[in-house]
């Protein structure tokens, strides 16, 4: 069973397509926290944003509100700051929209539209479980990803698991905004995923060779 996102949606059938476990949630706090912000949650919004990510059942996944995100982080003892929610929640949502966009790039042209489109079945956060690719990059001297998610999608009855490694990029010196890089690819769980990875590799190689020639 997939882990839940940091918000308790027991009153609803919806939950967000994010699994921010202790390490990843605290990373969000560290990246966007304010040292002198007021910590009163009374004025936090209860409005939730509908994602563009379709569920395996009906409708789309729904992101948590500012108030829900704050309460969930407080329950996990991450010392959230109320003022930070206005920055953290939109970025949290945007990063996951970006993750879905990266998944859909892999799924383009593979027939999912025949049965109503590719849908997200479940998700699981694995912040302490580095993927083989991430470990190799770390061995080469690159920074470790600050989070990892595994998303399982359904394409006309065929389930494909995607690994998403989240990396922080450079901070804009003017706006002080943090950029993100998402390394997204299908896990090598079945022959379909192997075929996708091989085709992706050869497609990039052929495109590079054509450009150089």
Automatic annotation (TrEMBL):
It is found in: Mitochondrion inner membrane. PROSITE patterns: CYTO_HEME_LYASE_2. GO terms for cellular component: mitochondrial inner membrane. The keyword Membrane applies. It catalyses: holo-[cytochrome c] = apo-[cytochrome c] + heme b. Keywords: Heme, Iron, Lyase, Membrane, Metal-binding, Mitochondrion, Mitochondrion inner membrane. Residues 1-50 are annotated as: Disordered. Its EC number is 4.4.1.17. It is an enzyme of class 4 (lyase). Residues 33-45 have a biased composition (Low complexity). Belongs to the cytochrome c-type heme lyase family. Lyase that catalyzes the covalent linking of the heme group to the cytochrome C apoprotein to produce the mature functional cytochrome. This is Holocytochrome c-type synthase. It comes from Lentinula detonsa.
């Amino acid at each position: 069973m997939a882990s839940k996102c940091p918000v308790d949606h027991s009153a609803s059938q919806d939950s967000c397509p994010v699994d921010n476990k202790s390490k990843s949630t605290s990373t969000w706090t560290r990246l966007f926290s304010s040292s002198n912000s007021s910590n009163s949650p009374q004025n936090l919004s209860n409005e939730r944003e509908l994602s563009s990510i379709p569920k395996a059942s009906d409708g789309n996944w729904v992101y948590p509100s500012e108030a829900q995100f704050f309460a969930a982080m407080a329950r996990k003892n991450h010392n959230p700051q109320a003022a930070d929610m206005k920055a953290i929640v939109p970025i949290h949502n945007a990063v996951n929209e970006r993750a879905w966009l990266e998944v859909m790039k892999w799924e383009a042209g593979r027939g999912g539209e025949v049965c109503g489109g590719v849908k997200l079945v479940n998700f699981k956060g694995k912040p302490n479980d580095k993927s083989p690719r991430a470990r190799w990059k770390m061995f080469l001297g690159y920074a470790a990803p600050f989070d990892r998610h595994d998303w399982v999608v359904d394409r006309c009855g065929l389930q494909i698991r995607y690994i998403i490694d989240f990396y922080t990029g450079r901070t804009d010196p003017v706006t002080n905004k943090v950029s993100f890089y998402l390394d997204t690819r299908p896990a090598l769980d079945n022959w379909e995923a192997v075929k996708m990875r091989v085709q992706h590799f050869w497609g990039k190689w052929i495109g590079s060779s054509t450009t150089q020639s």
